Amino acid sequence: xxxxxxxxxxxxxxxxxxxxxxxxxxxxxxxxxxxxxxxxxxxxxxxxxxxxxxxxxxxxxxxxxxxxxxxxxxxxxxxxxxxxxxxxxxxxxxxxxxxxxxxxxxxxxxxxxxxxxxxxxxxxxxxxxxxxxxxxxxxxxxxxxxxxxxxxxxxxxxxxxxxxxxxxxxxxxxxxxxxxxxxxxxxxxxxxxxxxxxxxxxxxxxxxxxxxxxxxxxxxxxxxxxxxxxxxxxxxxxxxxxxxxxxxxxxxxxxxxxxxxxxxxxxxxxxxxxxxxxxxxx
Length: 282
Known about the structure:
Blueprint: E1 3-10, H1 15-20, E2 23-32, E3 37-38, E4 45-52, E5 55-58, E6 65-67, E7 71-75, E8 82-85, E9 91-99, H2 103-109, E10 117-119, H3 124-138, H4 143-165, H5 169-185, H6 193-200, H7 204-215, H8 219-237, H9 242-248, H10 254-265, H11 269-281
Antiparallel strand pairs: 1-2, 2-9, 3-8, 4-7, 4-9, 5-6, 5-8, 7-10
């Protein structure tokens, strides 16, 4: 598939850059149609920063990794990896390519020598710096400015990675609680993972991973637990028809409600009501 929008710039490294050990080759801002594939030149480094959309990092030798807004990927020379955007939405990403014998040394100085792919969140600074680099290449600005911008990009990535690593756990929980509270209040509505993730400010993959880590269950399992809990209360405390209780807690099909209830509790809704109402009114 083709790009929807392209804003990029290429340059030929000077002898001075080659001598210094790092050459910036190109920088670009790309908005692509669904099912777009991003591949790299074998002998160069390439940095990709996802601004909007979702994609998959693929390799013939490693498990695929789902990426989304705020993810950054560093391709090294001869990496057999590529990115494929989702088949139902466009992808907006920024990228730059560089090479040279001192790249690893500079990455090591910026604590990025082990960087492969990382979700660091959206940084307006990184977006601004890459766009600045594109402009500088287009106007053929002195390479010292371009190289300086590259170092600033590396430093910002390092800060974002470090900030994420040292984020207080209570901050993570407070963000997740926005989604948890929403599920507890609106358990009877049709809820979407995308909607819940947006409440926390995390990408969908990050949100799902943190829910599992903090609460010990997936988002779907958490929501189902809330619905079954509310159904138990209604079965014990009211005489409403079981079908109506299923609808009231978010199930549009009585058979699915009864099946799910029995899977989670070990008894059918009717059996649960009979047992617990007898206890209440005994």
